[in-house]
Structure formats: structure tokens, C-alpha cells
Write a structure and sequence with these properties.
Layout (H helix, E strand, L loop, with lengths): L5 H41 L14 E7 L3 H17 L3 E7 L3 H14 L5 E2 L4 H5 L7 H5 L11 H4 L3 E2 L2 E2 L1 E14 H6 L10 H11 L1 E3 L2 E4 L9 H9 L17 H16 L13 H11 L5 E5 L11 E4 L14 E7 L6 H14 L2 H11 L12 H9 L5 H6 L13 H14 L5 H17 L3
Parallel strand pairs: 1-2, 1-3
Antiparallel strand pairs: 4-5, 6-9, 6-10, 6-11, 7-8
Helix pairs in contact: 2-13, 9-10, 13-14, 16-17
């Protein structure tokens, strides 16, 4: 057994405690130093300037714009689409060309049913707007402080309103005017400014008509196929489609029967007028223009939008006439409008409106008018320097504006198109089949009245 003295034991215990304490203290000091070094390193890292965040790159919204325009009209539409796409990076418009306005609406109807719609379309349908197929644009317009609705030609803007909301935006205006060959009028001794009535026009057409072997080789005039020309003439005589209370169809009134009977007589009995009908898309329209350009007709009634396709070295333009004893003509002044299908996504709807706003700013609506003959939708376009200079050099460009100032508002069919369809059928009977106007209009009135009564 080992025996320790008291003093030695005490000394050994104290030495052990001191050694232990020294070891513990040294470990703590090293940890503190390490922690401080770590903090310094961390501080050094945190004080470095933060790397800039990469800006979020948004892909442009690509939308389809359906429109039924051919010839130079289609070319000018493509020009503006390309300019819009190049002017900004948020939206890409893909133009999808249809044969005509009617085909655009037919294909849109199928697209709505399938749930896969374009974001923008050159079409309008009041009945479809009421059914919710189109999106109202009032909130979108409010997001553009400089849009200035008051600058629009109000006759055109209000045509896009349904039940107090703006469902459609006017892209351009149109009215049907008269185009004539200067050389044929001059040869016949006819002054355009003296053709004030339809009776005057019929007399001029008879004078310029040429026949050989019992057949007409040159027609004095060619109305455009369809009921629109004859409707203009009826409105100028004081006729109307519906009664003031909107309950009675009036297309068999004397104003209608007398006017349509005269057109039937001029076409089928007198042989001084002719029409082209049928064909694909606008084929009948361009055939009519070709007859005048080839001196096979002295003139025709067509759209103000035809001016972009016509040679005014050979042709002149004049307003539609009125009737003897009644007054000046009152043909329809119509807005060609665009809409946004309601099934397009919110992003697509915003993109579509951005495109519409670009198209009908003052500069571009003036460009459209100068190059197509259609009527500008903004009053400020008339002050565009290019437009002012153009109209001085091309007086025919003023004719649509002059006529629109005393034109009639377009008919809003409350039946969703059934009255208009009845008129189309009646016009074909008169213009093509030589059915007496009274019979054709009576049948159309019965069909139209039934459709109107079914709304009650």
C-alpha cells in the first residue's frame, strides 16, 4: 500500500486542478478565435456587393388576327401588322386571311363552338355580343388615357356599342359611291356634276349603253350584286326597314317596291345595267371593276374602299344620287369594326386591344384612308399633313367623306340577321331571276316579320 503525506497529496490535487483548468481554458480560447475568424470571414462575404438579378424576360404574347380582305387592301393590312410587330416587343400579331367578311364570321362561329378562338377579328355581330361571345372593351379603353374616344367619328364609334358597352372598335368607315369612266362620260356629253338623281343616272346609262346583234356589248352602269345598293336607293326615297316602334317590317312599302322594280327593269328589260354574281369571295366584285377598267361598262356603284385598286387617271368618283322631288341621296355610312372573342385569355385580349389602338391612331387611320379609300375613323386624321396634301391632289378621296356627312346609319337587325337574310334572297330574285319586285319583297316581308314576331 502506498501512503501519501498530507502536504504532498494536497500539492498533487492542486496541480491536477490547475492542469485541467489550463486545458479547458485553452480549448475555449481557440474556439472563440475560430468563431471570430469565421464571423470575420462571413462579414467579409456579406459586405461584398450583391450580384444584380437577371431581369425577367417575358415572352411576347402571340395572337391571331382574322380578316377577310384581298387585293391591295390585304397588302396594306399586312403592312400595318408588320409595322406594329416591329414597333414593340410585347405583342406579335399573326394575320390570318379569310376570303371575305362573311367567311370570317362563319369560321369564327365554328371557332367559338370549338372553344379555340383568335384574339382579334375583323368582324362584329350585335347578337353574338349579347350572347357573351365577344368581350366588352370599356375597361381596356380606360387603361389607355390617350385613347380619346371623343376624337372618333361618333357615327362610327356608336355602331360598336351594344346595350351601353363598347363591344367593337371601328377600324375604318365605308359608304358606296359611284365610279365612272371620264372618257365615256365626256364622249356622251354627260357631266358628272349634273347626275343628281337616279332618273338622271338611268338616262345617262341608256345613252352610254352599246348593243350589237341584239346583245349589249357595253353597259351604261353596273350596280354591285346584293341588296345594299338597292337599299341605299330606298333610303334615299324615304323608305325604311322597320316602323318607328320597331314592331313592323316595312320592306313591301311603295318606296321599296317602286325602287326595286326600277332596278329590275334597268337590268332585265332595258338592258342598260348589269351585275356580276356568285364566285369565290370577292370575285364578283373584281369582275365588276374589270368591266369598267376594260371599257365594257361606263361606271359602277362600289365601296369607297375600292379607291386603292382604281386608276383615277381614267376614272372619276361622285356621290350616289337622290330622287327627283325627294332630295339628296342618303346611302348608308357603315363602320367596319373589330372585336375580341370572349374566350380569348385575358393576356390575349389585352394584346388584341393594343393592336387595335395602334391601327386606329390618327397617323395610321389617315394612312389607311389614303391608300384604300376607306373613311378615317378619327377626326384628327383630317389634320394629318400627309392626308391634307393627298386630298388636295386626289379630289376623289373627299367623296366618301362628303357622302357620309348626309348618310344613313346602318340597320341593326334585331333578329340576329334573319331580316337581312330575307333581303339578300329577295335581291337575288330581282337582280338574277327577274322575279317582280312586289312578289319578292312580299315573300321577304313575311319571312322577316315572322322572325321579328318570334322575339316577343
Amino acid at each position: 500500500m502506498i501512503v501519501f503525506k498530507k502536504g504532498l497529496l494536497f500539492t498533487m490535487v492542486m496541480s491536477f486542478i490547475l492542469l485541467a483548468a489550463c486545458g479547458t481554458g485553452g480549448e475555449k480560447t481557440n474556439n472563440t478565435a475560430n468563431t471570430a475568424a469565421g464571423n470575420e470571414a462571413e462579414t467579409a462575404v456579406n459586405t461584398e456587393p450583391a450580384a444584380p438579378e437577371e431581369p425577367e424576360v417575358k415572352e411576347p404574347v402571340t395572337i391571331e388576327f382574322w380578316y377577310g380582305l384581298g387585293g391591295k387592301l390585304g397588302e396594306h393590312m399586312k403592312t400595318l401588322i408588320d409595322e406594329f410587330n416591329a414597333s414593340q416587343q410585347e405583342v406579335i400579331v399573326k394575320g390570318i386571311v379569310q376570303a371575305d367578311y362573311a367567311e370570317t364570321e362563319q369560321k369564327l362561329q365554328a371557332a367559338i363552338a370549338a372553344g379555340k378562338v383568335p384574339a382579334a377579328v375583323l368582324a362584329s355581330n350585335v347578337d353574338w355580343a349579347r350572347k357573351g361571345y365577344f368581350a366588352p372593351m370599356d375597361d381596356m379603353i380606360a387603361q389607355y388615357p390617350d385613347y380619346n374616344k371623343e376624337d372618333f367619328v361618333q357615327t362610327f364609334l356608336t355602331q360598336g356599342q351594344v346595350d351601353g358597352k363598347q363591344y367593337f372598335i371601328p377600324m375604318y368607315g365605308t359608304t358606296q359611291v359611284m365610279y365612272y369612266r371620264k372618257d365615256m362620260f365626256e364622249k356622251a356629253g354627260i357631266k358628272p356634276e349634273e347626275v343628281k338623281t337616279w332618273e338622271d343616272l338611268a338616262a345617262a346609262a341608256a345613252k352610254m349603253t352599246q348593243k350589237a346583234d341584239g346583245k349589249t356589248t357595253v353597259y351604261g352602269w353596273e350596280p354591285m350584286w346584293g341588296y345594299e345598293n338597292m337599299l341605299d336607293a330606298v333610303l334615299s326615297k324615304g323608305g325604311r326597314i322597320l316602323s318607328e316602334d320597331g314592331k313592323t317590317v316595312m320592306i313591301d312599302s311603295p318606296e321599296w317596291v317602286d325602287t326595286w322594280s326600277l332596278f329590275g327593269k334597268w337590268i332585265h328589260e332595258d338592258g342598260i345595267m348589269s351585275i356580276h354574281s356568285g364566285g369565290q369571295g370577292w370575285e364578283y366584285w373584281y369582275k365588276t371593276i374589270d368591266d369598267v377598267m376594260k371599257s365594257q361598262a361606263a361606271g359602277y356603284t362600289g365601296s369607297s374602299g375600292d379607291q386603292g385598286d382604281l386608276d383615277f387617271a381614267q376614272l372619276g368618283a361622285m356621290e350616289q344620287p337622290g330622287w327627283a322631288g325627294v332630295g339628296e341621296g342618303k346611302p348608308v355610312a357603315n363602320a367596319i369594326m373589330a372585336g375580341i372573342p370572349a374566350k380569348a385569355s385575358p393576356e390575349e385580349q389585352q394584346a388584341a386591344f393594343k393592336w387595335f389602338a395602334f391601327f386606329n391612331n390618327a397617323k395610321n387611320t389617315a394612312f389607311w384612308s389614303m391608300n384604300t379609300g376607306y373613311i378615317a375613323v378619327r377626326q384628327s386624321a383630317l389634320n394629318d399633313p400627309d392626308f391634307v396634301a393627298y386630298s388636295e391632289q386626289n379630289p376623289q378621296s373627299k367623296i366618301p367623306l362628303m357622302q357620309a356627312s348626309h348618310g344613313s346609319a346602318p340597320f341593326q337587325d334585331p333578329t340576329g340577321g334573319k331580316i337581312n337574310d330575307a333581303l339578300k334572297i329577295a335581291a337575288d330574285k330581282v337582280q338574277i331571276e327577274n322575279v317582280p319586285a312586289e312578289k319578292a319583297l312580299k315573300e321577304a316581308k313575311e319571312t322577316a316579320q315572322k322572325a321579328l314576331d318570334n322575339l316577343k
